[in-house]
Structures are given as structure tokens and as C-alpha cells.
Write a structure and sequence with these properties.
15 helices; 7 strands; 420 residues; 2 domains
Length: 420
């Protein structure tokens, strides 16, 4: 009977397989995807908790359930929960765990988007204005699965002594799903490309400029932090020796340090911008002055500059953000140049302002309380860093955009002369 059908209606087995692969049950798949994204990083933290328990005292003290609870609390701290240790509130967020969770949400979101891309209207219908609720519905269900997993984890891991904040976990989970899961689902389903095609070129160029500037800036801040730590590595080794740590303790302390490396990069960026950061109440670390007090025995703090007056050359570090903004804007416009002065300036400046806002948000979540007394105030001066970042990246982006526009106009004139 199938041979009697018109040839136009025949479909190959590959087409049928592709259609089935992209039309899987949206509700079940999205909910399970959100739960899987949360569970993937949670399992890693639980494993680290158990391994750390064995490394410290070979399991002589405590129990496996206690080690699992510690791992779960670490995962919750990466979601902004905060904890109490011996009655002292710890509110700082280990951004390494947060970035790991965001990466998992992004990757799983892409898989979910690809699996449900066959739902809803086609690309032509969407371009004609037909509403498509595939991505919003999938994102809502994905978020529900993630949030429920986070709430269950909070309920099982919380104790009256630790007291993690469930509302903060829910808020951070929502932000992770919206900020990483939403774009992942949109890109995986192909909707992002359709929507981006309808945006003005200036908006797309500003977004690309923001991305390039942030990439360059975080790379520069990471290099500065690494160099400062290596230069004074002897201090870190001295701290380790005074702690009388064995191999297991060193490994555990190394894992803890890795989880806060993104925080250190944000501090380094705030330092280069000028406002700097605090390492306890009444302290300040800037290119112009360094005022430190007693510090906890933590090896990464060896990267801090010496207390007192700073060398004269450190004052010129405030020019680095402007240079990075210009290079990032020029990098973004290299493949899509424009010969219009106003468009080039708008691309660069808008990208720089967006990058400044992005870094300001990062600086705002990179600090918090890490101990009692003075250590309740640790981290970048977020508002000042936001203002300085917007100003420096905006000016740098403006100059970079104008420079690339000049280069594009010059290249166009040369091409016209050769053709003439």
C-alpha cells in the first residue's frame, strides 16, 4: 500500500528517526533534565565530601552520613545558602561550585532543547509571527525539576546547627536556570538562532562586544592573581607548614582553594579597576594603598600585596581596564566591521557598558562573611567596582569601536582606489 502513495509524501528512515528524536515527551524530559542537572553536580560534591572524610583521618572520626552532609552543604553553599559553623554565619559563595553547576545546567539544557526542538511551529511559522511556547514551557518545567531537587537536598542536609537558607537556594537555583538553562534550551532547540536573526545588528554586535571584553578582563585578572600568588609562593608554603598538614589535608585544602579561585579572580579584577577589596572590617587593598590587619591562615592569601605604601607603578594599573575595553571592542568588530562612525561608537560603548554591569554583578556575589569578628566583611567593593567598570569599559569600548571604524573606512577607501 505504501507504494501507492505519492513520492512527495515518502520520508526516509533518517527523517523519521530525526523527527522522533526531536519530538520526545516535553514534560517528562524537561523535568527530568532539570533534576539531572542538579543531581550531576550534587553527586560530585557528595563524592568530594566522602573522599575528604577519608583523607583527613581515614574515617576514624565521624560517619559516612556526616561526610555526605558536608558535601551536600558545600553544594548548597554554591547556591548561596550560607551555613553556620559553631554559631558563626558563613555567607560567602564558593563560585567554583556555582560555575560548575551553571556549566551542568547549560549542557543539560542544550540536550533538552535538542530533544524537544520538534515541538511547536516551524521556523517559517515563527518568522511569520506565530507564537511558540516550546522554550518557555520547557524552561519552566526544567526549572521546576532543578528547584525541587535543591529543596529536597536542603531539607535532608539541614540541621539546626548549620541552618542553610532554603529561600536563598531557591533564588539562586532560579537564577541559574534562567541564566544558563534558558539560553541552553533556546540554542539546543534552534530558537535562539531564529530570534537572534530578528535583532538589530547593533544589538547583536553590542552583545558580542560585551562577551569579548568580559573574556579578556577575566583572563587578565586571572593572570594577575596567578602571578601574585607565584611571586609570593613561599608565604603560602610557610602557611602550610605552620598548619602541620599531611598529604590528605593538603589535598582537601587544595580542593577548597579551587572552589574559590573565581572569587579570587573577581577580587583581582576589582583591584585592577581601582576600588579594590577588603579582607576584613577596616582593611582595604587598592593600587594606591594597602591596609591589612591579622589574616587567617589560608594559603591563597599569600597573593595579597604587602601592607603599607604601594610602588608608584601600581597607580597606572587603572589604565588596564580601558585598554581591555578597547581591545575587546576591536576584537568583536574585527569580523563584522562598519564604516559608520555612529554605529561603530555605539557598538563599542554599549558592549563596554554591558561588560561593566556583568563584572559588577560578579563582584557583588564574590564576597561575604567567612568568619567571626572582622571576617564578616570580605570581598570587593561591589558598587564602586560597578561604577568604575562601566566607566572604564565604556570609554575603552568607545575608543576601540572608533578605531575599528577608522580601519574599516581606510580599508574600504583602498579597495575603491584599487578597483578604480
Amino acid at each position: 500500500m505504501t507504494s501507492l502513495l505519492p513520492s512527495s509524501t515518502k520520508r526516509s528512515s533518517a527523517d523519521v528517526e530525526r523527527d522522533l528524536a526531536t519530538r520526545r515527551p516535553l514534560t517528562v524530559l524537561a523535568v527530568l533534565g532539570g533534576a539531572a542537572a542538579a543531581a550531576s553536580t550534587l553527586v560530585v560534591c557528595l563524592a568530594v565530601g566522602v573522599v575528604g572524610w577519608f583523607l583527613t583521618d581515614a574515617g576514624a572520626h565521624g560517619s559516612p552520613s556526616g561526610a555526605l552532609r558536608v558535601g551536600a552543604l558545600g553544594w548548597l553553599m554554591g547556591h548561596g545558602s550560607g551555613v553556620r559553623i559553631d554559631g558563626v554565619a558563613i555567607t560567602a559563595v564558593p563560585l567554583g561550585i556555582t560555575l560548575l553547576a551553571a556549566w551542568a545546567v547549560w549542557r543539560v539544557g542544550q540536550r533538552v532543547g535538542d530533544s524537544v526542538s520538534g515541538h511547536g511551529p516551524g521556523a517559517d511559522a515563527i518568522a511569520d509571527g506565530e507564537r511558540d511556547w516550546t522554550v518557555p514551557v520547557a524552561l519552566a518545567l526544567f526549572t521546576a525539576g532543578y528547584v525541587v531537587t535543591a529543596i529536597v537536598t536542603t531539607t535532608l542536609a539541614a540541621t539546626p546547627a548549620t541552618d542553610p537558607s532554603a529561600p536563598r537556594v531557591v533564588i539562586w537555583s532560579l537564577l541559574l536556570c534562567l541564566g544558563a538553562g534558558g539560553p541552553g534550551i533556546a540554542i539546543g532547540s534552534g530558537r535562539a538562532a531564529i530570534w537572534a536573526a530578528g535583532l538589530p545588528p547593533v544589538v547583536r554586535a553590542a552583545g558580542l562586544g560585551c562577551r569579548r571584553i568580559l573574556q579578556l578582563w577575566l583572563g587578565v585578572a586571572a593572570v594577575v592573581f596567578a602571578v601574585a600568588f607565584v611571586v609570593d609562593f613561599g608565604t603560602a608554603a610557610n602557611v602550610m607548614s605552620q598548619l602541620h598538614t599531611d598529604a590528605g589535608d593538603v589535598a582537601l585544602l587544595g580542593l577548597l582553594s579551587i572552589s574559590v579561585v573565581p572569587n579570587a579572580v573577581a577580587w583581582s579584577g576589582a583591584y585592577l579597576l581601582g576600588p579594590g577589596f577588603t579582607v576584613g572590617a577596616g582593611t582595604l587593598v587598592t593600587p594606591n594603598a594597602v591596609a591589612l590587619g591579622p589574616l587567617p591562615m589560608f594559603p591563597m592569601l599569600a597573593a595579597l600585596p604587602d601592607d603599607g605604601a604601594t610602588p608608584g607603578w601600581t597607580t597606572w594599573l587603572v589604565a588596564v581596564p580601558v585598554l581591555v575595553g578597547g581591545l575587546g571592542a576591536a576584537w568583536a568588530q574585527r569580523r563584522q566591521p562598519t564604516t559608520r562612525w555612529e554605529e561603530g561608537a555605539l557598538r563599542g560603548c554599549a558592549g563596554g557598558v554591558l561588560a561593566g554591569i556583568g563584572f559588577g554583578l560578579l563582584a557583588a556575589v564574590a564576597g561575604g562573611a567567612v568568619g567571626p569578628g572582622r571576617m564578616r566583611d570580605v570581598g570587593p567593593l561591589a558598587f564602586d567596582a560597578l561604577v568604575h567598570a562601566i566607566t572604564a569599559f565604556g570609554i575603552g569600548g568607545l575608543l576601540g569601536g572608533l578605531a575599528m571604524t577608522f580601519w574599516a573606512r581606510r580599508t574600504a577607501r583602498r579597495a575603491d582606489l584599487r578597483s578604480a
